[in-house]
Design goal:
The complex is a heterodimer of chains A (about 300) and B (about 350). Chain A is flat. Chain A is an all-alpha fold and about 300 residues long. In chain A, helix 6 crosses helix 7. Chain A is built from 12 helices and no strands. The longest helix of chain A is centred in the last third of the chain and has 38 residues. Chain B is of the alpha/beta class and about 350 residues long. Chain B has 2 domains: about 220 residues, Rossmann fold, CATH 3.40.50.300; about 90 residues, no CATH class. Chain B contains 11 helices and 12 strands. In chain B, strands 6-7-8-3-9-10-12-11 form an 8-stranded mixed beta sheet, sandwiched between helices. A 4-stranded antiparallel beta sheet of chain B has the order 2-1-4-5, covered by helices on one side. In chain B, a hairpin with a 2-residue loop joins strand 1 and strand 2. The longest helix of chain B has 18 residues. The model of chain B has no long low-confidence stretch (mean pLDDT about 85). The chains are: A mainly alpha (about 300), B alpha/beta (about 350). Chains A and B meet through helix 8, helix 9 and helix 12 of A and helix 2, helix 3 and helix 6 of B.
Chain lengths: ~300, ~350
């Protein structure tokens, strides 16, 4: 297992390197440049480019960027004058991480729980309710959900604050809006998985041992049903991350996602590169975590890892 | 022929299925899978239940521990008496107490009968600890090790920490046997325990079951469609066809003195070692009846070369065939029926 994790970490480092290189060149393929502005005189634009080193040959810029990157320096923002990308990430990461974790925990717990209840009460009211939630969650994009939630719960009913991220009450609506899609996917998957497992022979064998229905469900059915769901949780982390871009804008949360969107609008090269690398690192770490988790849930993977 | 260990004049009944009727309610209608089955099981015997696929042999005994999903299964009538108690009327809780500790079951396919995410030691002990509430973990483990030894698994104290995928098919079936027998049940239902295994392993598992019966004195119900497997293992045989018992008897009586044409058909379709490859395997012509609409008379009549008019019109009663243990549900046994020569009579052709 240790060897497997080491392998994965090395692979993750290589992936990040490729990611940094790709994003460096790709954003420079976008038309225009950060300082192109018809209202600003040519020579001032030139001076700005020279100041940020954008007048140097592309490969040299790349060399400088990578050297700084290895020292953990993501450079200066081109638009937010005088601010480092490191500083901006450090300041906004907590909001995104907080929202992301809340949403992940909420969608995993409620989604899987809902799936279990739906499967156990198959064909009854709870099952239908879960399916309706699942369909709604999958079909309606998070920005629509977010806007509707704001309208009803903040504007009309005034239960929760409309925007910003300052107290627990502020977190409720964005968390819900961000989680709904993932929650729905997980619920649907868990329900199907539970129903697949219930017809397996080992469930019958467990009943033949005289176990109570509760014991069969908890010890055998849920555990086995979780296997395919764990894989999807890994993918859900990516979905949630992307979701933050939109949700943070709707709820005016000063997180990474908002900077990302603005960075692209302003062609703020270092900011986009820096955020991409941070998001990438985060996603890779999450995937690694899920893989390790999968090994814990499914003994077959664990043993294969030991031998490999 | 080996000596039978059971003396049926003294044997005690342990399970009695009386006129059991089970149906499955499907979208297209009611399948009458079990249409009045009577089977008696004696203490410590090995009873083989044979018949082709869909004849109701599995359903009958899954009914005994009520493992059929209901719906679609529905118990339409009859009784299943275990120690004087009708299991069909037992509560859920009572059934859970009986399963595993009094009546156990081995599934057909050992590859799917074990939970892939649980160590086999825990799978075996969870039933044990469910039935022995005060039992400590260490005590349970000790018993599991003993059980694994008994079913012939080497290194039991190491193996019990392993997962099912680390065992071969034959070994898994041994684990299943250990799992079923760990609480010393009085009855073990083995539902085609060797069908999913290859031939050499089949023989090993059969030997194991035979051996366990001697050691534990558990009555074994061996559900199978392979008469060959049954021959040197069972004490008695129940032959089923289309949801009914057609013939019952001790092994010798079925193999050398059988009276039902369906049993004859089964015997004929057994491959013989002395036949050359050019001889085509004998089959029973026709198809089993549609159990959506079971026939009015004998279900086997359309496929039976001896069928008479009465066979199509009326269900044959159960006729005794010479001994207390042997009976056949066939009109040929009626005193008025024409005399037919039994094809598998011991001192005739075999």
């Amino acid at each position: 297992m240790a060897r497997y994790i080491l392998q994965r970490v090395v692979l993750a480092a290589v992936t990040l390197l490729v990611l940094a290189t790709l994003i460096f060149f790709l954003i420079r393929l976008l038309p225009g440049d950060p300082f192109l502005d018809p209202k600003v005189p040519e020579e001032i634009q030139e001076r700005q480019r020279a100041y940020y080193g954008l007048d140097k040959p592309l490969l040299e810029q790349y060399g400088i960027y990578m050297r700084n990157l290895f020292q953990g320096d993501l450079g200066y923002s081109l638009r937010y004058t005088g601010r480092t990308v490191n500083g901006m990430i450090a300041e906004s990461f907590q909001y995104s991480a907080d929202l992301g974790m809340r949403s992940l925990v909420f969608s995993v717990l409620i989604g899987i729980g809902l799936g279990i209840v739906a499967a156990l009460k198959k064909g009854k009211v709870w099952d239908h309710a879960a399916i309706i939630i699942a369909v709604i969650g999958v079909a309606i994009p998070s920005f629509v959900v977010g806007t509707l939630l704001q309208y009803f719960f903040s504007v009309k009913l005034a239960i929760f604050p409309v925007a910003q991220y300052k107290s627990l009450a502020h977190t409720v609506l964005p968390t819900f809006a961000l989680s709904l899609g993932t929650l729905a996917t997980l619920a649907r998957l868990m329900r199907t998985s539970m129903l697949d497992v219930i017809s397996m022979d080992y469930i019958k064998a467990a009943r033949a041992k005289g176990l109570t229905e509760a014991q069969v469900t908890v010890k055998h059915q849920i555990r086995n049903a979780l296997l395919p769901v764990v894989t999807v949780v890994g993918i859900s982390i990516a979905t949630l991350l992307c979701g933050t871009f939109v949700i943070e804008n709707i709820f005016a949360i000063p997180g990474l996602g908002r900077y990302y969107v603005m960075g692209i609008q302003n062609l703020d090269y270092p900011l986009i590169s820096g955020l991409t690398i941070v998001f990438g690192a985060f996603l890779i770490a999450a995937q690694l975590l899920v893989d390790i988790l999968y090994g814990i849930v499914d003994p077959r993977i664990r043993v294969a890892g030991k031998r490999g | 022929m080996q000596l039978r260990t059971i003396d049926y004049s003294k044997a005690k009944e342990i399970l009695k299925i009386e006129d059991l009727r089970v149906s499955f309610n499907t979208y297209v209608g009611e399948v009458k899978a079990i249409r009045g089955v009577d089977i008696t099981l004696y203490e410590g015997e090995i009873l083989a239940v044979v018949g082709e696929s869909g004849c109701g042999k599995s359903v009958s005994f899954q009914s005994v521990i009520k493992l059929l999903d209901s719906p679609p299964a529905e118990y339409k009538g009859g009784k299943i008496l275990y120690q004087g108690k009708n299991l069909l009327e037992a509560s859920k809780k009572e059934m859970q107490d009986i399963r595993g500790s009094e009546i156990s079951m081995i599934m057909q396919d050992p590859m799917t009968a074990l939970d892939p995410t649980m160590q086999i030691g825990n799978q075996i002990s969870e039933g044990l600890r469910r039935h022995n509430k005060g039992m400590s973990k260490a005590e349970a483990e000790e018993r599991v090790v003993k059980m694994l030894e008994l079913v012939g698994i080497p290194d039991p104290d190491k193996r019990l920490k392993q997962y099912p995928h680390e065992f071969s098919g034959g070994m898994r079936q041994r684990v299943c046997a250990a799992m079923a027998l760990v609480s010393s049940p009085k009855i073990l239902i083995a539902d085609e325990p060797t069908t999913a295994l290859d031939v050499t392993i089949q023989a090993q598992i059969m030997d194991l079951l035979h051996d366990l019966r001697k050691k534990l004195n558990t009555a074994i119900v061996l559900i199978t469609h392979d008469l060959g497997v049954v021959a040197d293992m069972a004490d008695r045989i129940v032959v089923m066809y289309a949801g009914k018992v057609v013939e019952t008897g001790q092994v010798e009586e079925i193999f050398y003195d059988s009276w039902h044409p369906y049993t004859w058909g089964l015997m004929r379709s057994m491959p013989k070692l002395n036949e050359t490859s050019k001889v085509e395997l004998a089959t029973i012509n026709g198809m089993p009846p549609d159990l959506f609409m079971p026939p009015q008379g004998c279900a086997f009549a359309p496929r039976c070369e001896y069928a008479m008019k009465v066979c199509y019109e009326e269900q044959p009663p159960v006729f005794p065939c010479g001994s207390d243990s042997h009976c056949s549900a066939c009109w040929l046994m009626d005193p008025d029926a024409p005399k037919v020569k039994q094809p598998f009579k011991k001192d005739g052709e075999e």
